[in-house]
Every structure is written in structure tokens, then in C-alpha cells.
Amino acid sequence: MSSGRVVVVTGGNRGIGRAIAERFVAQGAKVAVTARSGEGPAGTLTVRADVTDAKSVDLAFAEIERELGPIEVVVANAGITKDTLLLRMSEEDFDSVVATNLGGAFRVVKRASKGMLKARWGRVILISSVVGLYGSAGQINYASSKSGLVGFARSLTRELGSRGITANVVAPGFIETDMTAALPDETQAEYKRNIPAGRFATADEVAGVVSWIASDDAAYISGAVIPVDGGLGMGH
């Protein structure tokens, strides 16, 4: 259980991030979400933050600490896509996705880790993707940013593992979101044929894994990549 813990979920206003925030609220945690726009779910504190800007992150986290207390669990979930094939991908397409998905995790975790070091307890959870290790045509920028989170978590584990802080990666596969719902039926069917489970996940299934990693039951798991993908990326 995460009861009473102070949890921050970046990009917690929609999709997987929102489901994660809702799960922690249901467990009795004190939950803040960062968002560029929109609001987090009921029972959360929403703060504005741009994860590509260290000053913005610092101000947001200072506000969270004033309102809720020292941050104990950070879920780096904020991410963007700018999909296109390599030869059409601009420098900006590549740089902006890496700056948000990988650089954003760096800024957020660096800021959150200060309080965790003082407390000698913390959970760092990085939301990656099956694409990070499996690969996906048209997503060189996104896949690079998401696989980078694995090296990040493993290096952080070696730096902070002796201080009661764990760092793990959750790698979701295809999730039922507005984005997948908008795909043509035949495209959805083709994706499902490649997934051993034969279906997309619910965002709540990802949230359940994240909340477990944040719990005391997972205290001896660090530097792990935990797939939540119905078997799609097995062995990758």
C-alpha cells in the first residue's frame, strides 16, 4: 500500500498517467500531478509544469512540497510522439521528443531525488514503452527516448540503491486510450493478432503494476524493466 505517501505523476491529466494517479488516490496516497494543461483526477493536486524546463519543474515541485510534504514516489510519465520515417524526420522532431521523454525524466527525477536522499526512502518509476526495446518503424525518436529510460534507471540504481531508493521501468504495450480507439478497425485487429493476450490493456492494468512497484512489497526490485504488454515484446 502507498497510504500516506506523497506521490507525483507527471502528465497525470489523461491516459495512463491519469489512471496511475487515480490508483494512488484510491490507496490513500497524497497525489500531485503535473500537466501543461487540463486537470488531474479528483483528489489530486494539479500543478503546471513543462518537463523540458528545469526551472518550471523546480517551481512545480516546490509547490507540491509546500502543499503535501516531501516527495516519496515519482512517476515520470509525461511523453510526446512525433512519428515519421527516419529520412523525413527533422532535427526538431527528434530533439523535442528526446527532450520531453528522456530529458523530462532526468529533470523530474533529479529534483525529486533530493528529498528521497534525505529520507533514505524513495521510488522512481519511469514509464517507457514496449517500443523502447522492440522497435517500431516511424518511431526512431520515440523508441530511442524510451529505451534510454532503461539505462537511466539502471545507472540510478547503482548510484542510489544503498539509500533505500529503487528505480524501475514499466514498459506498457498497446493500451485502450482515445488514441488507439481512433485507429481503423482493421488496424486494431492487426495489432491484436500480434499480441499473445489478443487484446489491448486497460490503463488501470498499467496503474496496478506501478502502484505495486511503489509498495513495500517491491523494496528489493530495482533496475528492472517490467513489461505490461500481453506478451507482445517477449525476449526484448
TrEMBL record:
EC number in record: 1.1.1.100
Does the entry feature the keyword Oxidoreductase, yes or no?
Answer: yes
Q: Which residues form a coiled coil?
A: none
Q: Does the keyword Coiled coil apply?
A: no
Q: Sorted alphabetically, which InterPro entries does this protein's record hold?
A: KR_dom (IPR057326), NAD(P)-bd_dom_sf (IPR036291), SDR (IPR050259), SDR_fam (IPR002347)
**Gene3D superfamilies, alphabetically?**
NAD(P)-binding Rossmann-like Domain
This protein's UniProt keywords = Oxidoreductase
- Gene Ontology molecular-function annotations: 3-oxoacyl-[acyl-carrier-protein] reductase (NADPH) activity
Q: What is the top EC class of this enzyme, as a single word?
A: oxidoreductase
Ranges where the Ketoreductase domain occurs: 5-178
Its family remark reads: Belongs to the short-chain dehydrogenases/reductases (SDR) family.
Q: Which PANTHER family match?
A: 3-OXOACYL-(ACYL-CARRIER-PROTEIN) REDUCTASE (PTHR42879), 3-OXOACYL-[ACYL-CARRIER-PROTEIN] REDUCTASE FABG (PTHR42879:SF2)
- Its recorded name reads 3-oxoacyl-[acyl-carrier protein] reductase
Biological source species: Microbacterium endophyticum
